[in-house]
Structures are given as C-alpha cells and as structure tokens.
Amino acid sequence: MGIDDDMNYFERIREFESRLVCEALARTQGHQRRAAQLLGLPTTTLSSLLQRLGINARSFKERRERISLQTFERLHLWKSDRVF
C-alpha cells in the first residue's frame, strides 16, 4: 500500500481554512471585521490567517465592483436595444 499525497493532514487543514475564510470574505464583500464576526474570530486572528494563507481581502471587494460594472453594462445594452 502506498501513501496518498492528497491525504496530507496539514495540507487538507490549510485548504479547509482557506475555503472557509474565502467564503466569509465573499459573504461580507471583503469586509474583514464582519468576516471575523461571521467566523467567530477576533479580527487580529483573521488578519493573521489571511497573511499565513496568502489571501488578499481586497480582491473580494474588487470582484464585487467588477460584477457591478458588468451588470451596469448589461443593463445599458439591454435598454439601448429596446424600442420606445
């Protein structure tokens, strides 16, 4: 029997932490204090986790802005095709 590389305990825990933190940041649009509250963590602990996991909370804010701009552009195109 061989050892599976995908069963490494520490890698799996890191992946789980990363997914959990990213989900909290996505739900709060990158707002760290609210994400920390959602996770039941002190803000300083979340900040340390972000640094250790290499996660940039700002990227969740930018994604929201990009989506909003795309939605605006779609609405504008939709209205321009309408006949009044």
- Sheet-strand content, in percent, reads under 5%
> Mean pLDDT score, rounded?
81
- Structural Rg: 19 Å
The CATH topology corresponds to: Arc Repressor Mutant, subunit A
Low-confidence stretches: none
Give the overall silhouette.
globular
Output the CATH class name: Mainly Alpha
Helices, by number, come to 4
Describe the protein.
The protein is mainly alpha-helical. The chain has one domain: Orthogonal Bundle (Arc Repressor Mutant, subunit A), CATH 1.10.10. Helices cover 74% and strands 0% of the residues. The chain has four helices and no strands. The termini are far apart.
Keywords:
single chain; 84 residues; mainly alpha; Arc Repressor Mutant, subunit A; 4 helices; 74% helix; 0% strand
Outline:
74% of the residues lie in helices and 0% in strands. It is mostly helical.
Which helices and strands appear, and what pairs or packs with what?
Layout lengths: L8 H19 L4 H8 L3 H11 L4 H24 L3
Helix pairs in contact: 1-2, 1-3, 2-3
